[in-house]
Automatic annotation (TrEMBL):
PROSITE patterns: 4FE4S_FER_1 (PS00198), 4FE4S_FER_2 (PS51379). InterPro entries: 4Fe4S_Fe-S-bd, 4Fe4S_Fe_S_CS, PSI_iron-sulfur_center, YfhL-like. Residues 1-29, 31-64 form the 4Fe-4S ferredoxin-type domain. This is 4Fe-4S binding domain-containing protein. The keyword Iron-sulfur applies. It comes from the Bacteria. The keyword Iron-sulfur applies. It comes from Halopseudomonas xinjiangensis. The lineage of its organism: Bacteria, Pseudomonadati, Pseudomonadota, Gammaproteobacteria, Pseudomonadales. GO terms for cellular component: cytoplasm.
């Protein structure tokens, strides 16, 4: 599943440059994650980089966008042209 940024976000700007897929952008009030681009860093890293750098721990899994590791890997391949 993809990740989501909660209302606890303090707009510190550290997550956006860490996303290898460009899935994180500034929303109207807080940063947001595009579920079509988020692979939880599958294919790039062992752990989601945005979660690793977030100082307020506000990036949980998004229960509305459930995907298996295999589905995330397929998305990674499509996004990177490795398919």
């Amino acid at each position: 599943m993809s990740l989501i940024i909660t209302d606890d976000c303090i707009n510190c700007d550290v997550c956006e440059p860490e996303c290898p897929n460009g899935a994180i952008s500034q929303g109207e009030e807080i940063y947001v994650i595009d579920p079509n681009l988020c692979t939880e860093c599958v294919g790039h890293f062992d752990e989601p980089q945005c979660q690793q750098v977030c100082p307020v721990d506000c990036i949980p899994l998004d229960a509305n966008n459930v995907e298996s590791k295999d589905e995330l890997m397929e998305k990674y391949k499509i996004l990177t042209g490795a398919a």
